[in-house]
Amino acid sequence: MNTTGAAFGTRLLGLTRRVRPAAAVAAAPTPDVACASVTGVPARAPGLAGVPHFAALGGGRVVTTPRDAEVERSDTRVCYVYGVVPASTRLPQGLLGTGGGRVRLVRYGDLAGVISEIPPAGALGTREDLLAHENVVASLATRTTMLPLRFSAVVTTASGVVEEMLKPYYDWFTGVLADLEGRAEFTVSATYVQDTVLREVLAEEPEVMRLRESLRGLPETAAYYDRVRLGELIIQALDAKREVDTEELMQTLSPHAVAATPRPPVDEDTAADAAFLVSEDDQTSFRKAVDELGYRWAGRIRLRVLGPLAPYDFVPSPPGGPVG
């Protein structure tokens, strides 16, 4: 049963749902772009079950603590690890992490692990935990090069951060930090204006128009399979449009970035979603290119830009793959 397809069919029949209050595009349109300089906000708002696009770094016996997982010993505290930064990094005063613990650095050579202490027993995975993690990462990403670890990475002791992470991966960490110095991630999310894009589908797909007309005026409980078929055809048409629009986004913005990677769509209204690694010298031209694309897409696609962020999408896995 394709309930998504049925929902699309029902939505298309009326073409009345508004994503935002109707606003006619002026003769000289303004770009449909929302820009944000983000601190403490995920690159993509994740669900509590996990965090997409977090760099999955690990070393030694680093473990990811799932919901309801417990550490056997209850008489000590363990180290929650947020990421790795240069040892010269200075922390913001009073920075607190997951569970309200004070954030500090564990240094080894030119590297430092960013940690705070948490109780060894109990669950990690609440929205508050996630936001605390993101706040620490974002706070440091504004002042230094930050290699973020995945949400809920825990090591038993501070010395374990050195022995199990910083020492064995020292050359790799220093190399990645050097490669990312002076660069930050920007994410660009493009969302269809539903009424506009569905009208495009009607105009371009005769079978969609035919089914739509045959279902007009019928109760929603009637012709169920025709509605499902209508939804499937719309999904196929949107997939084709999404491929074209993603390519345009990448071609337009990639010349202003060191690296770029597309990301999976969040939902059926996603026109394109991508992350870009941008150097400090190119951030102005990158933002200008986003504005120009927003003008070009005004009334059809809305753009949302987040950044500068920690380079979630551009940290490779350690040699041998992530451990933990």
From TrEMBL:
User: Which InterPro entries does the entry link to?
Assistant: GvpL/GvpF
Q: Which Pfam families match?
A: GvpL_GvpF
Q: Where in the cell is it found?
A: Gas vesicle
Entry keyword set: Gas vesicle
Q: Determine if Ligase is one of this entry's keywords.
A: no
Q: Which family does it belong to?
A: Belongs to the gas vesicle GvpF/GvpL family.
Put simply, this protein is called GvpL/GvpF family gas vesicle protein
